[in-house]
Design a protein that fits this description.
The protein is α+β, with helices and mostly antiparallel strands. The protein is about 30% helix and about 30% strand.
Length: about 725
């Protein structure tokens, strides 16, 4: 058999709540460490006087009694653990592990026995239930009745408030009242704070950050009394878990932090930490309210009757002696500025993060203490608002996440080295080590994957495939409304008249009203007229695939709108395999070759000659004798090819009126013109009011379907 036995997932009851932890039996002691608080209970082996093995609600349990009167109970063992624990106790502790059965008869009449700090209610010498007297907050007596009240634990889902015992009305041998005797036995071991006698010392008007205010602190032998203008708190020393003494970043102040479990309460607010703020320059001379012999006997040289020095040193020294806990101070960590803390923000408040030897602590609002053993991993994240800072994220094994934000990038190198030295699991180690440089942090965004940027690059490549033909030809393709409509719907493979391209052209139109220099309008004047007889530009691989699969997408998604078809098709195209895409690329290449061949024949036959300009408006007309150009007044202002002139004849054909209606709607859909301009066109009589008003009321959020010469509203 080994020198130690270890058991995980062992539970102990703390004021009505189950806390899990790890229990270790060694030759020298029995040690239990709580996973929740990190508190360690150690029982020296020579003090063990009795041990019991019994069946409990969570498997099997062990009850240990010491010669000092303390009782410890641990549950969560398996039935097969009895033999090896019993053998270990015999060989190392010389204690017999006795089996004891609990009474499950359900009787409520029995005998109350006081054993150390435990009240046991027995029926026929078998315990029915046991009450740790340390959980008792008050004990009241009545006629033949004793009421025992308990401390409440916020972690317990259901809390036991009180238990009442009926005591028969008989007197003892010495004539004492059995009710009073019962109550005195309870109060002698109960955790009832009674301010009897004088305080050991008093500190006046100390500044407290949590709970906020100035308090007089009275130090008693067993508890701490905070007396403020509004609230009073009594804190037993048994609830103090840890003490911290932390220097402020300005090197002129000190934090003294007291960790509490259970916390102190103020209404519905719970304070797990008591934080005092001191100035380093403040001095104090203190005389304890005890004789020198009493001080020496009780505190064994840790305190002296008369003490003087900085206030924070006196307070921390007194608390260390009375609580009997070590004071934790920052370790070897030093930040970029030379201080032992890092300025950051947690939730909505700014504070200081202290890397300690065994954890992190953040002060002050709200205070957070994280031990290394409860940390699952840490993460260095880029700041959300600026590249001059970063976020430090800590994830615990209980799946709680703490984010400390707005840390200066100069602190990155120091913090990363500290975390690495403590062997904490860094979630994005590879990424951050690559980013770590001479400055400790990089301003560049190139080392971080940007999904949106990648998608834009992909769409740009698809557009380049569609725009790969000769750009000197100007606007290629047909000028029919149907072509424009397809461009608006399938924005992933736009052929030149997309919404994005129209937005880019807008800034070029703005200066025409103010600046009339020839060089500003030169690109417009050099633009060629689209010849209806010219070969049509070939479609890209994506457009060929879309035309071949449009009906299938509609059949698989009944009721899908035109814009949703485009979105769905884009997603399907991206998921298409490489082999399938190569098939459509070959078709697009063949179509391009045919287009180049047709374009060559078209140019050899005299097509593509530049027509003359007409006062800034280009117009090509075919006449009987060949292609001639007609000049009109050159003083007219420049007008867009899609502008509806008010000077044209009102006796135009129905075909022309229908074309204008379609062009006007497409311009409105692309937002090249405003609703007020459309309304003016209606007022001037150049459009059908019954046709356009429903479109205005839809606020451009309708889908259009063009079929031959009629425009039908789908959405």
């Amino acid at each position: 058999m080994g020198d130690t036995l270890e058991f995980n997932d062992i539970h102990t009851e703390v004021k009505g709540s189950w806390n899990d932890g790890r229990l270790r039996f060694s030759k020298q002691s029995v040690v239990y460490k709580s996973h929740k608080t990190g508190k360690v209970d150690s029982i020296p082996a020579p003090e063990l006087s009795a041990a019991q093995w019994r069946r409990v609600c969570v498997g099997h349990g062990i009850k240990l009694a010491t010669s000092t009167g303390h009782v410890y109970r641990y549950d969560g063992f398996k039935d097969t653990d009895f033999e090896k624990i019993s053998a270990f106790f015999k060989s190392n502790y010389k204690v017999e592990l006795a089996e004891k059965d609990m009474c499950v008869k359900g009787w409520n009449w029995g005998t109350a026995k006081f054993t150390g700090s435990l009240l046991s209610f027995d029926v026929n010498d078998s315990p029915v239930f046991e009450i740790p007297l340390a959980s008792v907050s008050q004990c009241a007596t009545g006629k033949n009745e004793v009421t025992v009240e308990f401390h409440q634990n916020d972690d317990a889902e259901v809390s036991l408030m009180e238990v009442r015992f009926y005591v028969p009305p008989n007197t003892g041998d010495d004539g004492s009242d059995p009710v009073e005797a019962f109550a005195q036995n309870v109060l002698s071991k109960a955790d009832v704070i009674q301010a009897t006698g004088d305080a050991v010392c008093i500190f006046k008007e100390l500044q407290c950050l949590t709970p906020r205010g100035r308090y007089d602190i009275r130090i008693y032998p067993t508890f701490l009394h905070l007396h403020g203008k509004t609230f009073d708190y009594k804190i037993p020393y048994t609830t103090v878990l840890r003490l911290f003494l932390l220097p402020h970043k300005d090197q002129r102040q000190m934090f003294f932090v007291i960790s509490l479990d259970p916390p102190i309460k103020q209404g519905q607010t719970r304070y797990h930490f008591l934080i005092l703020l001191f100035s380093k320059d403040e001095e104090l001379s203190l005389a304890l309210n005890m004789s020198e012999d009493e001080v020496e006997k009780r505190y064994e040289g840790k305190l002296s009757k008369n003490m003087s020095g900085p206030l924070f040193e006196i307070v921390s020294r007194v608390m260390k002696a009375l609580v009997n806990r070590k004071i934790t101070v920052p370790g070897n960590f030093q930040g970029h500025s030379g201080s032992q803390c890092i300025t950051c923000a947690y939730k909505a408040s700014s504070g200081l993060l202290y890397p300690l030897e065994r954890g992190f602590i953040y002060v002050h609002k709200p205070p957070v203490h994280l031990r290394f053993e409860e940390i699952s991993c840490v993460n260095f994240a880029r700041g959300t608002t600026t590249t001059r800072s970063f976020d430090f994220e800590i994830e615990t094994k209980q799946n709680n996440q703490y984010t400390f934000s707005n840390i200066e990038r100069e602190e990155y190198g120091k913090l990363f080295d500290f975390v690495n030295a403590k062997k904490l699991n860094i979630k994005n180690r590879g990424f951050k080590e690559g980013m770590k440089g001479a400055e400790g942090y990089s301003d560049s965004d190139e080392d971080q994957h940007d999904a949106y940027l990648e998608r834009m690059k992909e769409e740009g490549k698809i557009r380049e495939e569609g725009d790969g033909s000769d750009e000197s030809e100007g606007d290629s393709g047909t000028d029919t409304p149907e072509t424009k409509y397809i461009s608006l719907s399938d924005s992933e493979a736009d052929d030149g008249d997309s919404e994005e391209e129209s937005k880019k052209k807008k800034p070029e139109k703005k200066p025409k009203k103010v600046v009339k220099e020839k060089k500003e309008r030169k690109p417009r004047k050099e633009k060629k007229v689209k010849d209806p007889g010219a070969p049509k530009r070939p479609m890209s691989a994506y457009m060929l695939w879309l035309n071949g699969n449009r009906e299938r997408i509609k059949s698989e998604n009944p009721g899908i709108s035109v814009t949703e078809i485009s979105k769905k098709a884009g997603e399907m195209w991206k998921q298409l395999s490489k082999d399938r895409k190569e098939e459509w690329d070959r078709k697009a290449a063949e179509a391009k070759k045919q287009y180049e061949k047709a374009m060559k024949e078209y140019r050899e036959s005299g097509g593509g000659a530049a027509p003359k300009k007409k006062g800034g408006k280009v117009e090509a007309k075919k006449k009987s004798g060949g292609e001639k150009e007609k000049k009109e007044g050159g003083n007219e202002s420049f007008k867009s090819k899609e502008f509806i002139s008010s000077e044209e004849s009102s006796s135009e054909s129905d075909h022309d009126r229908g074309s204008k209606r379609k062009v006007l709607l497409m311009m409105m859909m692309r937002r090249d013109i405003s609703t007020s301009q459309v309304s003016q066109s209606i007022t001037d009589g150049y459009s059908d009011q019954d046709f356009l008003l429903p479109c205005l009321q839809a606020h451009f959020y309708i889908c259009f379907s063009i079929q031959t010469e009629n425009l039908e509203i789908d959405g």
